[in-house]
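Q: Sequence in, structure out?
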Amino acid sequence: MSLQANDKSIIMELAKSVAEIAAKPVQEEKRQLWRDLNGLKPQRPMVMLDQICWHELNYDGSLDLFCTDNECRAYEQTLRRILYQWKHFPVDMVVEPFITVPKAVNYSLYGLGVEENTLVSDPDNDVISHKYINVLDTDEDVEKIMIPEITHDTTETKRRIDFANELFDGILEVRPVGDPGSHFIQIWDPLSCLMGPDNAAMALIDRPDFIHRIMKKMTASFSSMLDQLEEQGLLCDTRSQTLVHCTGAYSDELPATGYDEKKPRCKDLWTAGLAQMFSMVSPAMHQEFELDYVNPILARFGLVYYGCCDPLDLKIDIVRKIPNLRKVSMSPWVKQERGAEGLGKDFVFSSKPNPANVAQPEFQADVVTKELTDINDVCKKHGCPLELILKDISTVKYDPTRLTKWANIAMKVAMSG
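A: Exactly. Output:
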């Protein structure tokens, strides 16, 4: 194993800065605040920013990468982004004294490849347009959906760990982690990519039996993946699962009794589920074509976060029945009053303030303040534990200060109670 001295020096200096921040008492204070919220006994609303347009933020060169080795550059990017966020919009992020190293887990979940055409408006932005080509159109296509075979390249995993240990040299703890994608129970997002959203939506109406056959195959594939990851000890360990779908995952309720950090189980972990294209379907169809299939999978996990951009305020009755549910996404398109009344004190109201408010021609602080205050007020009225999560940030018009301004407003609202 060979490391260029300059690369190691860069990483070590960045790691020292992260370790210094991670050692601050405020990190444990923030962890406890997340535990309280996730235990439905919040001290105050919590605030996070994630899914950020990083390509627009490098106004001062602090996000420039200088390492020459690609593996070092990946770690350098992670460290620089942590330091940038802590400096400019930390809100309730927790800086941990460890670095995660993904194990070399190999598989193809459904055995099918996406075929698409793409269109780029900003070559530096990874948010692009997709036009998907239907590869699931016939019964023969459905039969191509496979049960995955999970393999673990232990030699490659050891190489990654040894490399990271040499690179970080004890400054940050090196933690090998299993497959993070397995904690995200999404069937309809990949299905819309395989069929195209228009084709998938029309098939719900014109070919319901066909969709049922697809769902049976895809959920069987997902369940088998989890079985194999559990058996081989390739799930993420609980102590390293600090986020669940852009929100704090700290909890006093996990892991479950009998936990073995060398072989974590689904019930030791959070999961997240969603069916974003089901924004357009009725509660009955949502139940029939999504929840009837994924609820048995969600039930395997210790705690569940459900939803994303899809408005769920008209579907609270069916969402409430999801096993082990704890957080529910409330997108910018929900009726806040209806959502808060439906969730009450029983679940975390995971509010998604509108990212368009940081993408306008001019940043309007009064608009942001009103939006966040209204959300906070309605949650206080109905006793809802609240988190304010700004995500899906495609652009800030190349004005990084907008995120700092938004963060300052959000923390002021959160600290008001």
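The chain has one domain: 5-415.
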